[in-house]
Write a structure and sequence with these properties.
The structure is a single chain. The chain contains ten helices and four strands. With 246 residues, the protein is mainly alpha-helical. It has one domain. The strands form two sheets. Strands 1-2 form a two-stranded antiparallel sheet. Strands 3-4 form a two-stranded antiparallel sheet. Strand 3 and strand 4 form a beta hairpin. It starts with 11 loop residues before the first helix and ends in a 5-residue tail after the last helix.
């Protein structure tokens, strides 16, 4: 999970709606359903997220899965934040493509279910004291990515932070079968290219830059995994060429 720096306000229509925020869950659901400017808001969110899913860092467009607007703090818990741009993010899985994604899991014999904003846990009441949000500046430090595709709590966390990391992973189903397979593929690709660069005495810093730096305001998938993979090299590349991503 990478930190998302909020930019702008989501547009005039969202701002206008937020001037009179909903006060009940029912009102929030009704007004959000009838809000006709979601595509414009989604475009703004994806731009500030470099096209990555706010929770999984998947490039959902690469898989034709689409995105939806996610309320970090659920509408049912905080109806007054329904149109609050600081509470919104773009999460993988377009609501209209959920059935197709479910069918894909069956066809590919992958365990698991929906993840991110559509995960079953996130549909329920969320303990915001334990939940780690991508709007939290240090969110990346809570998680470690392994070569087999798993995501786990980082090793250097205290007991409370470990609990928060586990809670967030489980709540968002970030260790779903689909995500594990995709992360393992990405790790293997990085490892193969890294080894080739070492064998041929090629510039590893250049390789890290290709994998970490945005192109046309888009990042490659699994930015934080890639950053952890390259370690010190990644930090040097980002500090020099894209400090806004640190």
């Amino acid at each position: 999970m990478r930190h998302i720096t909020k930019q702008g306000s989501g547009g005039h229509h969202l701002q206008k709606a937020h001037l009179r925020p909903p006060q009940t869950n029912r009102e929030a659901t009704s007004r959000w359903r009838s809000f006709n400017h979601k595509q414009k808001v989604l475009e703004s969110l994806l731009a500030e997220q470099y096209q990555l899913c706010c929770y999984s860092e998947l490039r959902s467009d690469h898989h034709e899965l689409g995105y939806h607007i996610e309320h970090i703090e659920n509408k049912g818990q905080a109806p007054q934040r329904t149109f609050d741009y600081t509470n919104l993010a773009a999460s993988a899985l377009d609501s209209d493509r959920l059935r197709a994604f479910k069918d894909r899991l069956v066809q590919e014999n992958l365990p698991g279910d929906f993840f991110g904003g559509h995960a079953q846990g996130k549909q329920q009441s969320v303990d915001m004291q334990r939940f780690i949000s991508p709007h939290q500046h240090d969110c990346a430090r809570f998680f470690a990515y392994l070569s087999d595709g798993r995501i786990v709590p980082a090793e250097n966390l205290n007991e409370w932070d470990q609990e928060r990391a586990r809670y967030t992973i489980d709540l968002l189903n970030l260790d779903s079968g689909f995500l594990k397979v995709e992360r393992q593929k990405w790790w293997s690709e990085l490892e193969q290219l890294f080894d080739e660069h070492l064998d041929k005495d090629m510039d590893v810093d250049c390789l890290a830059a290709i994998d970490l730096l945005p192109t046309a305001q888009r990042l490659n998938p699994f930015f934080t995994l890639t950053r952890q993979f390259f370690g010190r090299i990644a930090e040097q590349v980002l500090q020099q060429d894209a400090p806004e991503l640190l």
